[in-house]
C-alpha cells in the first residue's frame, strides 16, 4: 500500500477555501480532511470524530507537552490542533489527508512533515474579498477593517506555499486543485510501488 | 512574460507516445513540440522547420563542436538533435516546449536544463507492447524480438523520470499528461509573476 500524501491548504477568510476543499474531497474517496482536536465546547449537532475531537484543556496541554500535535494554535480561550496520530493513521491507510490551517500552522507542519504539499488560495480581487467579508452579516466598518487586516496578514505568506490558486471561477479553481492532487499521484515515487507488477512483467 | 517550461517525454516504441503528445499539444496553444535538427535526407512532403531542420553533416558536427545541442544522437548514418537555441526561443516567448526523446537524450537534457519536467510513458502490458510492435508490419520474429529488446532497455530507465504514466486508456493517459502540465503552471514560482498585479492590490 502506498502511503498517502499530506496537503496543507491555506487562504484568507473570504477566499472560498472551505467550499473548494469540500468539493475536492466529495469527488475523491481517497482524500479527506483531517479531523482536528479542540477544547472549545461542542455545539448542538456536532459529532465527535467528525467535526472535531473534543477534549479538555488539560488533555490538550498534555498532548502539547507530549509533542502529539503537528500544529496547534490558541484562539482566545480555546485550543485547536492537528494530532500527528490522526494524520499518520490516514496516510498509513493510503488516504491523502487535507489540513485547512493558517500560515502559522502550515509552517509548523512543513517543519515536521517536509513532504507535505502546500496550496494557497487567493480571492480574485480586493473588491470581492471585501464583499465576501462584509456579506457574512451586517457588520460595522471597524469589524470589516479588522477582518481585512487579518486577511492581508494571512495573504502576505503566499510565497511560502508550493502552489497558488486564484478562486475566481469556482469550477476552474476546483479543477486546478484536482490537477494538483492527480499530479502528485503520478510521480515516479508514488507510481513505481503501485505499478510494481506491471513494471516487472514489462522488464522481465 | 513568464518563461515557458521544458518537458521531456520518453517511452518505448509501441507505448503510444506520439499520439499522446500530439493530442496534448493540439489542445494547448502555449505548448508545442520542439523541432529537431537532422542530417537525414528530407522526404517528399516534409517541411523544413516543421518536421525537422534539415542540415548537412558538416554543419551538424560544427554545431556539436559549438555545444549548440541540448542533446543529440547518431542513428546509423544520421544525426538527430535538439538545438539549444530552438528551445530557448520557445521558452523565452512563454511557450512550453516538449521534447520527444529517448532516455539517453533525456539524461543530456537534465544535465543542461535541470528545471525540465520529465515524463515516462509505459504500455499497459507486455502483451499489448508485443502486439503494437508486431502490428506495424508483417515482421519476422527476430525483428520483433530486437524491437522488444530495445523497448525493454528504454523502459529500464523509467525511474530517472519525474512522472510515470501508463497508457492503457488513451483519454485517461491524456488527462494525466494535461494535469501534470496544468500543475506546473500553478506553482508559486510560475504564478507569482503572472499574478503580480492581483497580489499587489490584495496586499496593498
From TrEMBL, chains A, B:
<feature type="domain" description="Guanylate kinase-like">
    <location>
        <begin position="4"/>
        <end position="182"/>
    </location>
</feature>
<dbReference type="InterPro" id="IPR027417">
    <property type="entry name" value="P-loop_NTPase"/>
</dbReference>
<dbReference type="Pfam" id="PF00625">
    <property type="entry name" value="Guanylate_kin"/>
</dbReference>
<keyword id="KW-0067">ATP-binding</keyword>
<keyword id="KW-0418">Kinase</keyword>
<comment type="similarity">
    <text>Belongs to the guanylate kinase family.</text>
</comment>
<keyword id="KW-0963">Cytoplasm</keyword>
<protein>
    <recommendedName>
        <fullName>Guanylate kinase</fullName>
        <ecNumber>2.7.4.8</ecNumber>
    </recommendedName>
</protein>
<dbReference type="GO" id="GO:0004385">
    <property type="term" value="F:GMP kinase activity"/>
</dbReference>
<keyword id="KW-0547">Nucleotide-binding</keyword>
<comment type="function">
    <text>Essential for recycling GMP and indirectly, cGMP.</text>
</comment>
<feature type="binding site">
    <location>
        <begin position="11"/>
        <end position="18"/>
    </location>
    <ligand>
        <name>ATP</name>
    </ligand>
</feature>
<dbReference type="InterPro" id="IPR017665">
    <property type="entry name" value="Guanylate_kinase"/>
</dbReference>
<dbReference type="InterPro" id="IPR008144">
    <property type="entry name" value="Guanylate_kin-like_dom"/>
</dbReference>
<keyword id="KW-0808">Transferase</keyword>
<dbReference type="InterPro" id="IPR020590">
    <property type="entry name" value="Guanylate_kinase_CS"/>
</dbReference>
<dbReference type="InterPro" id="IPR008145">
    <property type="entry name" value="GK/Ca_channel_bsu"/>
</dbReference>
Amino acid at each position: 500500500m502506498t502511503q498517502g500524501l499530506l496537503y496543507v491548504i491555506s487562504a484568507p477568510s473570504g477566499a472560498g477555501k472551505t467550499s473548494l476543499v469540500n468539493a475536492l474531497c466529495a469527488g475523491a474517496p481517497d482524500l479527506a480532511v483531517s479531523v482536528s482536536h479542540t477544547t472549545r465546547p461542542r455545539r448542538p449537532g456536532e459529532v465527535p470524530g467528525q467535526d472535531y475531537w473534543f477534549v479538555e484543556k488539560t488533555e490538550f496541554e498534555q498532548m502539547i507537552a507530549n509533542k502529539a500535535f503537528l500544529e496547534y494554535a490558541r484562539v482566545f480561550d480555546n485550543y485547536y490542533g492537528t494530532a500527528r496520530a490522526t494524520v499518520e493513521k490516514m496516510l498509513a491507510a493510503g488516504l491523502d489527508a487535507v489540513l485547512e490551517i493558517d500560515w502559522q500552522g502550515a509552517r509548523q507542519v512543513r517543519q515536521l512533515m517536509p513532504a507535505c504539499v502546500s496550496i494557497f488560495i487567493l480571492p480574485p480581487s480586493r473588491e470581492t474579498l471585501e464583499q465576501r467579508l462584509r456579506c457574512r452579516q451586517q457588520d460595522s466598518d471597524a469589524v470589516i477593517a479588522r477582518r481585512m487586516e487579518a486577511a492581508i496578514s494571512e495573504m502576505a505568506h503566499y510565497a511560502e506555499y508550493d502552489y497558488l490558486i486564484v478562486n475566481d471561477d469556482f469550477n476552474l479553481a476546483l479543477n486546478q486543485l484536482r490537477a494538483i492532487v492527480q499530479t502528485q499521484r503520478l510521480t515516479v515515487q508514488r507510481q513505481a510501488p503501485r505499478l510494481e507488477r506491471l513494471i516487472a512483467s514489462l522488464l522481465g
